[in-house]
Amino acid sequence: MIYVTPAAAFDGYAQLLNQIGRAELPLAVRGTLNKAAFETRRQLSEVEMPKTFTLRNTFENKKSLHYQRCDNTFDIDAMQSSAGQKAEVDFETGLRKMEDLREQEVGDTLKARPGSKMMRQPTVASRIGKAFNRPVAGKNRPSKGVKWLKMRDIEQKAGLLDNPRGQPLSDDGRIKRAHAMMAKFKTNEIYELPLLGNRSVIGVFRIQAGKIVLLHKLETGSKKLKKRETVKPAMEAIVPQIGAYFEEQIDARIRKAAMRALRG
Fold first, then answer.
1. Per-residue pLDDT tens for 170-209?
2. CA–CA distance from 97 to each of 59, 87, 94 (Å)?
3. Measured on CA atoms in the order 129, 132, 135, 139, is the torsion positive or negative?
4. What phi and psi, each to the nearest 5 degrees, are found at residue 186?
5. 135 with 101, same domain?
6. Structural element, H or E, at residue 218
7. What is the spatial distance between Cα 125 and Cα 131, in angstroms, rounded to a whole number?
């Protein structure tokens, strides 16, 4: 029979409390932070993103959204975890800056892409299956080294740099003639022309089945985006749960420490 004196029992209890304070409490805090970050990332990916946006691909969720664990520290004051969107993602083709979600989150001012003077707005006709929730088809995107035909290119291709009758054409007449020439060429080339009735906007077209199809609109200037928050509401949905996460973590850590003490 083993007898445990009150002094020995107190010493064992004191050691257990010391172990809880020295290691188990920091581990419980660390586990709480990591679970909160993971759940925030999951809430962002599975709830807020599909609710707020029409998702045309999966890489935004799989590649750009992330959570960062807190590891290898017992200093509670230094602990932190995070969830959100990466500033850059390393794709097979190289690093790509991920600015689109930040622009939506804060309601930023949208400007033309680097190297371009005009903003490009794809139409439904440019998308795969002509469906709004699908990405722009590869054949309808700008390709490196391939230039879209402009007015002078079309006229030169047709041998009509000037009105063949010697009479000047109105702007609308010149635009209509260029469209007619592209239809006559029977090619699949993409070309740019001002929109009839709004020449400040450039249309990007292709002739398909004998019809003029508008693929993109090109406009100068900038556009103020409406704020469409996803990270903030994801975080706000998880914050009320942190107390419960900590209770789970500290209960599990104390149980483990007690079992070790009993075995020892």
1. 888 889 999 999 999 988 899 999 999 888 899 999 999 8
2. 13, 6, 10
3. positive
4. 55, 45
5. no
6. strand 211-219
7. 8
Instruction: Copy the structure tokens of residue 51.
Output: 């609710």
* 57 and 149, same domain (yes or no): no
Residue 128 reports pLDDT greater than 90: no
Beta strands in 86-159 (DSSP E): 88-91, 94-97, 109-110, 119-122
Task: Please enumerate in sequence order all residues whose Cβ is within 8 A of that of 163, keeping only pairs 6 or more positions apart, or say none.
Answer: 169
Report helix, strand or coil for 237. Answer: helix
Predicted confidence at residue 206, as pLDDT, reads: 95
* Judgement on whether residues 103 and 165 belong to the same structural domain of the protein: no
Instruction: Identify the burial level of 238 via C-beta atoms within 10 angstroms of its C-beta, where 0-12 means exposed, 13-18 middle and 19 or more buried.
Output: buried
3-class DSSP state for residue 195?
Answer: strand
Average pLDDT in the chain: 81
Dihedral angle of Cα 24, 29, 31, 34, to the nearest 10 degrees: -160
**138 with 214, same domain?**
yes
Domain count, the chain: 2
Structural domain span for residue 214: 112-224
List residues bridging with 84 in a β-sheet.
66
**Residue 130 contacts by C-beta under 8 Å, 6 or more apart in sequence?**
124
- pTM here is 0.59
Q: Can you give the pLDDT at residue 207?
A: 94
